[in-house]
Protein 1
Amino acid sequence: MSLAPGADGVLVDRYGRVARDLRVSLTDKCNLRCTYCMPAEGLPWLAGPELLTDEEIVRLVRVAVERLGVTEVRFTGGEPLIRPGLVDIVTAVAALDPRPRVSLTTNGIGLDRLAPALRTAGLDRVNVSLDTLDPGRFTTLTRRPRLDAVLAGLAGAAAAGLSPVKINSVLMRGVNQDEAPALLRFALDHDYQLRIIEQMPLDAQHGWARETMVTAEEILASLRTAFDLSPDPAERGAAPAETWLVDGGPARVGVIASVTRPFCGDCDRTRLTADGQVRACLFATEESDLRAALRAGADDDELARRWRTAMWGKRAGHGIDDPTFLQPTRPMSAIGG
Ligand code: SAM
Ligand code: SF4
């Protein structure tokens, strides 16, 4: 293994992992206030000039795809559907050569209206976040009464052909911890793919506690009260979800055990925040400022070099279980989940 990042080529780190999956946050703002993500009053949002413009985003994604071997581009936030230029950004990214796979992680509000245009623009897939099917709980959890809008968004995505439609759910003790079987039944009935995610220490309020989070073991035990789960013979690769066949298959359910069964050794992610910072990991404490370089006139070679250097320094693991673990100062909504 070499002792420094190469002058050209892919985004490799000193442990030999290669990042091919780019997460791009399009905004830190959101129209929900999920309790595990943001405080009720929201956050001090990035100021307009701090945000990358649509053209700057497309340029950096182009550098990643053309020069750094990125093959997957996922737009997220904050809530990416509230970015006015989203459809144009997707159009430009889907037109890159080689064409990356293009996907979106969203809370689903407004997706019923936008899904056809996004599909036409070249969007391949969506993940919609939905933690509960109970309207009262939804309002408690997200602090907004928008369950119907999310359900309409899911249906709109499926109707537009953005398949497979995946649902991401986070379970919280004392709130929706008992809902795993109902969420899976709902997903099976509608041909959506459910993935349940362990809650991570990424909330702006720093309210996460290892002792109270719902673990993958508990999630699986809860699902098994209603379904037979057997190990999925399919290759997992760099996918964060461990998948299980439901009642013998072919339907599957995924569990993303970021905390209790970390998959950092297989991680293939690189992240770009809405203000143009490269992060090697959700839990990184360092960032590399591509916006400043870009606005100072850096050419594509220089941007690619800086991106490689940033990824070379990626740590071996997130270290949530280490006594010295420090939660990143940026919350999930400002990194891009
Ligand atoms: N607003 C969009 C959404 O909710 O899908 C995209 C951004 S959101 C930060 C991306 C994903 O991160 C969502 O599925 C959300 O449930 C998840 N998330 C947010 N905070 C989390 C936390 N503390 N632990 C685990 N997942 C979290
Ligand atoms: Fe918004 Fe997504 Fe955070 Fe919920 S998880 S507050 S929808 S950014």
Protein 2
Amino acid sequence: MAENRLSADDLIWPLFIIDGHNAKTAIKTLPGVERLSVDLAVEAARQAADAGIPALALFPNTQDERRSESASEAFNPDNLMCRALSAIKSAVPQIGLIADVALDEYSSDGQDGLVRGGEILNDETIAVMVKSALVQARAGADIIAPSDMMDGRVGAIRAALDGGGFSHVQIMSYAAKYASVFYGPFREAVGSGARLKGDKRTYQMDPFNSDEALREVALDIAEGADSVMVKPGLPYLDVIRRVKENFNVPVFAYQVSGEYAMIEFAARAGAFDRQAAMLESLACLKRAGCSGILTYFALEAAKLLQR
Ligand code: PBG
């Protein structure tokens, strides 16, 4: 009688990448998740493919000395992200690669956009993101995922991809991305948290709003997004459902780092059964209408579901 099902095919696994060889580092606020050097990320990609996971979402932890105010490392064709994309693409070609595009992974201040006089520069940021998306596509990204929430970035990236010979590369836009406290552990994972002054409320959405989510999604689809994302996941099931009912593109949810951490820490404290909480939270995202879920539980859940 089940109306919905969950399978490995629904799960996208986010990976944090670091420099080095055979290196992994723990993330204090994200227990059980490790940042991986490129060679270990290739191994992880192999495991993911074997478990039936269709795609990975990559996030680089850029070294301090490579970060700058101009975030120019974002379009260095040999940056950590590009090296990870091309290594995984050649070793595990069957897995899809989703490349995050935003400047917080390369900037010295942890904001997703360029900053001048305390203000985010929308159009200048887009120019950098376009260059970043192009080096990522060249390195093997199948899907470009702008997570920055600047206005007009989807259209600009689409035009650049088409012009650069990458018309087959898709765009998954973080369309309804809320200014959420639940991104805390992620910011530690990519190294942007300690630098971040202020917040991201001038470009990320107000948690009280949901009509605005529909407007953001409509704009991104009009600009050429192939799929859209709602983020975070579990606190925003109503938004996922509204997007699903109003648009006919795939909608993805991101079960973000803070959601993962809540389950993990609560389970460690003996509040509930960890595995059951993991599977129930994913089932609920599926029921709300998602075509797929980005989750740090992906590998573990995929293995369980495969059996
Ligand atoms: C930033 C980005 C964030 C996440 C994905 N891309 C954090 C932010 O906007 O500050 C959050 C993911 C998570 O919390 O798991 N471009």
